[in-house]
Amino acid sequence: MLWSDDARNAIAKAHASIDDAAPLADRIKAIDAAYPFGIRQHFPYKVWLRERAAYLKRYGYKRKIASVESPLEREIRRSNEGAL
């Protein structure tokens, strides 16, 4: 089975226990408690976050994106600025 399949199955089980009228905060707590992979790091955690965001998006969740620029993004921006 794939990491994404395991993540979706865990989310589906948690979803079954959540009341339809539950607020987003309660839904997030229930989904986060269902994390199936042990330590929250590396590739399995990235897959989990992707599947979690896809599920929660249906309920109004907006994924927080870091505003910090990576070194690669900074170099691309600088090279584009110099090309003008």
Describe this entry's structure for a reader.
The chain has one domain (1-84). The model has no long low-confidence stretch (mean pLDDT 90). The N and C termini lie far apart (49 Å). It is mostly helical and 84 residues long. It is built from 4 helices and no strands.
Continuous helix count: 4
Number of separate structural domains: 1
Shape: elongated
DSSP summary, beta strand count: 0
Specify the helix fraction band: 55-70%
Regions with little confidence, pLDDT below 50 for 5+ residues: none
Q: What share of the residues does DSSP label as strand, in percent?
A: under 5%
Strand/helix succession: HHHH
Q: Kindly, what is the distance between the CA atoms of the first and last residues, rounded to a whole number of angstroms?
A: 49 Å
Major sheet characteristics:
none
The overall average pLDDT, rounded, is: 90
Which radius of gyration do the C-alpha atoms yield? 17 Å
Structure characteristics:
84 residues, mainly alpha, elongated
Task: Tell me briefly what this model is.
By secondary structure, the protein is an all-alpha fold. Helix content is 63%, strand content 0%.
What's the arrangement of secondary structure elements?
Layout: H1 3-16, H2 24-33, H3 42-57, H4 71-83
Helix pairs in contact: 1-2, 1-3
